[in-house]
């Protein structure tokens, strides 16, 4: 139990927002490394659907997955497909890359002019990831590898060799929940991104703050549930790190198939959510109206007719759409800017912008959205 000072036995301390920190983070690192390096041998060993993709990935990802070596796929424990299209030529970083499945797909999407770096602390997984780089480079027909894997902790990216402001896109698949210091992860990601860069990732979230006995459960930690943040606490951490306006892409419920684990979790509900968080200087905490218009000009693979910015912004090709100042910045000042035209500036302010979903955005929402 936690005492009045916030201290508890076994090295745990609980903070105000309900997330858990370890006085010795090595305790969590060791448990995670053991679960993913030795306990699990394939996805069939999982006891929940937290680390299983609920929906079929889009075609542009499926087309690349068929080229990924089978061993890489078998050792994949993600909870989504956090890989946007249109990333050719970008520098991409994958947090907690594991066997490297998403890195291999990203390498195909980024092309020979882009780079992909995977960071992971589990040596067994990195051995699998590194084993197929040369073979995969030949399959893609690239003159040299654009893919590399490094050993390190996602809380200390600079120590792992990731330079500040060097990345256009950071992805992660069901990993940040495993970190003993989530605020530091978000701060490190923010520092590693270039201005106009983006954190695009899937992870597990909870409908409430979890009690200590859940957060300390070894299997629930490995299954990505014990470390799940309460959704609203995650948003607060984003704001503190500099990601002022996190946007939700999709949300799917997670099924706990093990009855024993379900009893321990009680009525807490879990979701696999994909968020995108942009590093931009002028993002505001609310949607503000500057009379701006965004026009999607096409060019993104898999998005010939329309592009979805998030779960309530859909842009049909060549159709002018009124947007708030934040959306205008995301589309016109990020890596997406070559695909969009933004009309207007922030010279005149017209008050709050109504960002409720349009009818077309709701009708075309991807299946599985539930949050």
What does this entry look like structurally?
The protein is an alpha/beta fold and 371 residues long. It has two domains: 9-278, 3-Layer(aba) Sandwich (Rossmann fold); 292-363, Ribosomal Protein L9, domain 1, CATH 3.40.5. It has helices at 26-39, 59-65, 70-74, 101-110, 123-131, 133-140, 182-192, 212-215, 218-222, 231-241, 259-265, 325-332, 359-363, and strands at 12-14, 20-22, 91-95, 115-120, 147-151, 167-173, 193-206, 229-230, 247-253, 270-278, 292-296, 306-310, 313-316, 321-323, 340-343. Helix 7 packs across helix 10. Residues 1-14 and 16-23 have low confidence and may be disordered. This is Arsenite methyltransferase. Belongs to the methyltransferase superfamily. Arsenite methyltransferase family. Its EC number is 2.1.1.137. InterPro entries: Arsenite_MeTrfase-like, Methyltranfer_dom, SAM-dependent_MTases_sf.
In short:
With 371 residues, the protein is of the alpha/beta class.
CATH architecture of the largest domain: 3-Layer(aba) Sandwich
Helix content: 25-40%
How many helices in DSSP terms? 13
* Uncertain runs: 1-14, 16-23
Number of DSSP-assigned strands: 15
> What is the CA-atom radius of gyration, in angstroms?
20 Å
Gap between N and C termini, in Å?
32 Å
| Class per helix and strand makeup | alpha/beta
Q: What string, H for helix and E for strand, traces the elements in order?
A: EEHHHEHEHHEEHEHHEHEHEEEEEHEH
Summarize the main sheet.
8 strands, mixed
Assign the CATH class of the largest domain.
Answer: Alpha Beta
Oligomer class: single chain
Task: Give the rounded overall mean pLDDT.
Answer: 88
- For the record, what is the CATH homologous superfamily label of the largest domain? Vaccinia Virus protein VP39
Domain Methyltransferase: 89-242
Pfam families: Methyltransf_31
Protein name: Arsenite methyltransferase
EC number: 2.1.1.137
